[in-house]
TrEMBL record:
Residues 31-83, 86-183 form the Nitroreductase domain. This is NADPH-dependent oxidoreductase. The lineage of its organism: Bacteria, Bacillati, Bacillota, Bacilli, Bacillales. The keyword ATP-binding does not apply. GO terms for molecular function: oxidoreductase activity. It holds the Pfam family Nitroreductase.
Length: 286
């Protein structure tokens, strides 16, 4: 069976689960593949409402609901967001772009409205609001895929956070954490469910253990190399010769990406000053 015919991660990894536990929800979750090409077909209002209601049903710490979702459908605005997010064409193609924001602006307003001083300017509040936004995004992603749409999270909305905040009218106390492009997938954009690190590397019983780490990393490297996952995507390091041969896998690619900020955010000027930006946006990292 070709990789494009693999339905879910259970098939890809050859793991076994009984049919009782392979229900529709598990099928959607284990069949996830990021889609980066869309048709012009609109997402109907009822479908979008189902996606947004699913997002709003995500867990939230202490019921603070410290997030907001910006729904973007305007073509010109999507074009500008694309330019601020690495010029990724699929953002313009997708009929809907959802931007999930950490939002303590509303919490500050409510605190002051009730006659109190807001004193929750802490690192915990930033983490809490960011996790709330991420959980809402994941719910939206699963809902979209369950309805037959393609979707892809967009971390590059953090490339130019202050410019994006102006574009979206975000007040102080809001920060765009992640986007989600949603739409009907364009034919031929799927490449099959992507392998993940082995269970033995990322799942631990009772206590963390690195006993299986190297074995798992080596196995994953072999898998990604055999799929030619990094052909044309090799990360160069200044002053070092390009690494040739068949041993360029996930470990080498990932290690090279972690050697400097620009290999994560695509440009040396992006995200490296994120701490200062967040503080200007009204978040405390203390």
């Amino acid at each position: 069976m070709g990789r494009n015919m693999i339905r879910n991660r259970f098939e890809l990894e050859g793991s076994v689960t009984d049919e009782t536990h392979l229900n529709g929800t598990i099928q959607v979750l284990t069949s996830h593949e990021s889609v980066r090409g869309f048709t012009p077909e609109e997402v109907p209002p009822a479908a979008l409402e189902a996606i947004l209601t699913s997002a709003r049903s995500a867990p939230t710490s202490s019921n603070l609901q410290a997030y907001s979702i910006i729904v973007v459908r305007d073509a010109d605005r999507k074009s500008r967001i694309s330019a601020l997010s690495g010029h990724q064409g699929f953002i313009q193609e997708a009929p809907v772009m959802l931007v999930f924001c950490a939002d303590i602006h509303r919490l500050k307003y409510v605190t002051q409205r009730q006659g109190y001083d807001f004193k929750a300017d802490t690192l915990e509040m930033f983490l809490l609001s960011s996790v709330d936004a991420a959980l809402a995004m994941q719910n939206a992603l699963v809902a979209a895929e369950a309805l037959g749409y393609g979707a892809v999270p967009v971390g590059s909305v953090r490339n130019h956070p202050e410019e994006l905040a102006l574009e979206l009218g975000l007040p102080e106390g809001m920060f765009a954490v992640v986007g989600l492009a949603v739409g009907r997938e364009r034919e031929g954009v799927r490449r099959g469910v992507k392998p993940r690190l082995p269970r033995s590397v990322t799942v631990h019983e009772e206590r963390y253990s690195a006993a299986a780490l190297d074995k798992g990393l080596n196995a994953y490297d072999e898998q990604m190399i055999s799929r030619r996952s990094y052909d044309g995507r090799r990360v160069s390091i200044a002053g070092e010769p390009e690494k040739e041969g068949s041993d360029y896998g996930w470990c080498e690619h990932t290690a090279r990406r972690c050697t400097r900020p620009e290999t994560i955010a695509a440009s040396s000027s992006l995200r490296e000053n994120l701490r200062e930006v967040l503080m200007r946006r009204g978040f405390s990292l203390c």
